[in-house]
Design the sequence.
């Protein structure tokens, strides 16, 4: 089974300071509710976090937590319906099962509320059957996970509220581990260094 912990910290312009930045870079994992763990192809814990505007500078607090259970239909790069991809898959990553391993890819979702783009190597540029065919976007392998290995993806983005047109920012971490369900624990990512780490950080102003 593949277990994915997704930490998504959203913050405002005034929270871009070095004090908040240090908090973000040090906040790499959170606890897991073991009662929510069920057998499936891919299990994802999705956490949304933000800072308490009424207090002193302190770590971001969880305001939304969700567990999603995926079957084999998670193993796809998606369709040309980018909104469907964003809502039905794990955003900004794609997962493929290859024999006894998992290929984890990072890709740019190209959705309207995230106008800041990640450009770079597109592995599917010449694949006519791919939704990334002839597109100038980032779509590349972050790492391949073998059994009992752990990988981390870190990336950032700038977003715009479609209603108010206000800008806000996102700091995102994916902790991904390939293990048996019996090995999942509340502090599975604590005191554990990833075997692979992939970063895609934009210079956001």
Sequence:
């Amino acid at each position: 089974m593949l277990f994915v912990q997704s930490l998504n910290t959203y913050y405002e312009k005034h929270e871009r300071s070095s004090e908040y930045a240090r908090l973000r870079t040090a906040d790499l994992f959170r606890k897991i509710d073991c009662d929510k763990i069920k057998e499936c192809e891919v299990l994802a814990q999705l956490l949304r976090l933000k800072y308490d505007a009424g207090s002193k500078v302190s770590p971001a607090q969880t305001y939304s937590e969700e567990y999603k259970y995926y079957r084999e239909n998670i193993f796809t790069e998606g369709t040309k319906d980018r909104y469907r991809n964003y809502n039905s898959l794990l955003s900004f990553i794609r997962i493929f099962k290859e024999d006894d391993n998992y290929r984890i890819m990072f890709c740019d979702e190209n959705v309207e509320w995230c106008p800041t783009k990640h450009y770079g190597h597109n592995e599917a540029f010449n694949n006519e059957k791919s939704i990334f065919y002839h597109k100038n976007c980032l779509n590349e392998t972050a790492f391949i996970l073998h059994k009992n290995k752990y990988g981390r993806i870190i990336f950032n983005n700038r977003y715009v509220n479609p209603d108010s047109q206000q800008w806000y920012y996102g700091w995102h971490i994916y902790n991904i581990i390939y293990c048996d369900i019996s090995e999942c624990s509340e502090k599975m990512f604590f005191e554990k260094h990833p075997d692979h780490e992939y970063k895609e950080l934009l210079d956001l102003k």
